[in-house]
């Protein structure tokens, strides 16, 4: 189980327009926001990533770099990037499912075509959102087993204002006996 205040797992993926993303080499002022999404087949992901694209400048103003990552290949990732109008948001692709599982993401099997007529991959990861501190430790994590009811990015921007102002620590770090 991933735990706040502990090192994040290694993460390395190609991106559409920003070269290779290596989490260990990232140097944000405060955080890297990693949004793992299901893939091109998911209409909820498209809406969610549109919101992240819209708010990426707000995150950047708070010292937070953003990236959206899926296990889709380059072609499907490029289609999703076009669909969401990704300009500021980095889009990573080719996430190995073994790596998705290291990050605690749930893996689903294909149910064929989605409501928008796009085939789901045979296997793909469900969504997750992470804030990783510039020192490589986990600050925040949210992992879903379903495509809906995800963390709200507008609320996250407001929460970051509080976190930064109050030097608020990561919570959920206790792993001792209870």
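^ structure tokens above, recovered residues below v
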């Amino acid at each position: 189980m991933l735990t706040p205040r502990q090192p994040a797992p290694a993460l390395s993926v190609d991106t559409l327009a920003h070269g290779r993303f290596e989490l260990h080499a990232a140097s944000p002022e405060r955080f890297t926001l990693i949004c793992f999404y299901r893939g091109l087949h998911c209409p909820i992901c498209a809406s969610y990533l549109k919101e992240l694209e819209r708010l990426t400048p707000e995150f950047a103003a708070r010292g937070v770099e953003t990236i959206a990552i899926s296990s889709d290949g380059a072609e499907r990732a490029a289609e999703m990037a076009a669909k969401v109008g990704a300009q500021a948001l980095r889009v990573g692709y080719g996430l190995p499912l073994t790596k998705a599982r290291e990050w605690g993401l749930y893996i689903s099997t294909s149910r064929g075509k989605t409501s928008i007529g796009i085939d789901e991959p045979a296997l793909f990861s469900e969504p997750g959102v992470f804030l990783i501190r510039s020192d490589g430790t986990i600050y925040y994590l949210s992992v879903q087993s379903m495509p809906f009811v995800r963390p709200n990015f507008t609320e996250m921007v407001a929460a970051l204002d509080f976190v930064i102002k109050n030097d608020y620590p990561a919570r959920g770090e206790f792993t001792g006996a209870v």
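The longest strand covers residues 31-36.
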